[in-house]
Design goal:
- This protein has 8 helices and 15 strands.
- With about 350 residues, it is α/β, with parallel strands linked by helices.
- The chain has a domain of about 150 residues: Rossmann fold (3-Layer(aba) Sandwich).
- Helix 3 links the parallel strand 4 and strand 5.
- It is elongated, with a radius of gyration of 23 Å.
- It starts with a strand and ends with a strand.
- It binds nicotinamide-adenine-dinucleotide.
- Nicotinamide-adenine-dinucleotide binds next to loops.
Length: about 350
């Protein structure tokens, strides 16, 4: 049985709380939250869980592991303190705001022999896991390009821009399914609502083997879109997180075919035509379990069985490196920045 504490119970914290609360090998003992109304919410909905406005109370109550669901810019300082108190830690995405901070947290966890996991929820999503299998086993041929859209009207944050708030999901999915880091990124964004806080971002990622990806994130959009399109040399896949058929595999493409001469021989001069292929569309059945439930159970399992989390500090750090490079590119008006 793992005794657990949670810091931060705003928008996302309650989802973590509900999932950890439902696990039989973990007991949520204490939640720290600065906002009185949120403390009241916990007392009302989880009467067995104690609450406190002071997160330091979590360090002296037989607690083994702490989950941090506070705003991104607070992750590093809080996580450092948690690790100094020798607790296992699950940090919501992004791990930190800089690579240097992320490295420091990883070192601290290593020194104290504590688990450090980052809440990259989509890597626990059965549809994303299926997407990775299709790409890695060659179902779509050579991946050519990918584009991802994460759009909605709100929730508008006032502490970080849409890059740091929304793009960690798309970046973590891309690194996970491609099993590669981009060499270079470039990004442009625009702040319409609040000075200096970009609401929309267009981010290009250049991966090895000539794979390119584009991410469009926005909290200022008429529609809710959570969609990734992957175009390969053989097939194409759409992963649509808000659709019932989350994965759609299209046997579509454009193939080169050499032209035959009047005698029926293939032309030796490399002449070819481009043929459109439009075959079947397959909607594979995905057994869907709430990804956050899988993530929470995995965190506890890793502590109990002494395993490395799937989304460990290094995974979180890779995402931070891409975010930092993208932020730098935005400040340099979209110039390419090496990751
Ligand atoms: N994995 C996902 O899909 C997902 C989704 C949404 C948010 N998140 C992440 O979860 C984290 C929280 O996001 P949110 O949308 O819930 O933010 P939020 O602003 O709604 O909530 C944060 C809460 O933390 C509390 N808080 C801040 N500092 C504190 C402290 N020192 N002690 C106690 N409480 C403190 C605030 O009072 C607030 O209620 C962020 O890191 C965000 O990136 C992850």
């Amino acid at each position: 049985m793992i005794n657990l504490g949670l810091i931060g119970c705003g928008y996302w914290g309650p989802n973590l709380l509900r999932n950890f609360y439902s696990l039989s090998n973990c007991q949520v003992k204490l939640v720290a939250e600065l906002d009185d109304s949120r403390l009241e919410y916990i007392r009302k909905n989880f009467p067995s869980i104690r609450t406190t406005p002071n997160y330091k109370d979590l360090f002296s109550d037989g607690i083994d592991a702490i989950v941090i669901a506070t705003p991104a810019q607070t992750h590093y300082e809080l996580a450092k303190e948690v690790l100094h108190h020798n607790k296992h830690i699950l940090i919501e995405k992004p791990l930190s705001m800089t690579e240097q901070e992320g490295n420091e947290l990883i070192d601290l966890a290593k020194k104290g022999n504590r688990k450090l996991m980052v809440g990259h929820t989509f890597e626990y999503n059965a549809a994303v896991q299926a997407l990775k299998r299709y790409i890695q086993k060659g179902e779509i041929g050579k991946p050519y390009y990918i584009y991802s859209q994460r759009l909605n009207l709100g929730i508008v944050r006032q502490d970080i821009n849409a890059l740091w708030n929304l793009a960690p999901h798309d970046i973590s999915i891309l690194l996970y399914v491609l099993e590669k880091m981009p060499k270079m990124v470039s990004a442009k964004g625009h702040a319409f609502l609040q000075e200096g806080i970009e609401d929309i971002i267009f981010l290009m990622l250049h991966f090895p083997d000539d794979v390119i990806a584009h991410i469009h994130v926005s909290w200022l959009d008429p529609s809710k879109v959570r969609r990734m399109t992957i175009v390969g040399s053989e097939k194409m896949i759409i992963y649509d997180d808000v659709s019932d058929s989350k994965i759609q595999i299209y046997d579509k493409g454009i193939r080169k075919q050499n032209i035959k001469d009047s005698l029926g021989h293939y032309d030796d001069f490399g002449k070819f035509q481009l043929i459109k292929i439009a075959g079947d569309v397959v909607f594979p059945k995905i057994d869907f379990i709430e990804p956050l439930k899988t993530e929470c159970a995995h965190f506890i399992d890793c502590i109990l069985a002494d395993k490395t989390p799937m989304t460990d500090g290094q995974g979180g750090l890779r995402v931070v490196r891409v975010l930092e490079a993208a932020q730098k590119s935005m400040r340099q008006n979209g110039e390419n920045v090496a990751v």
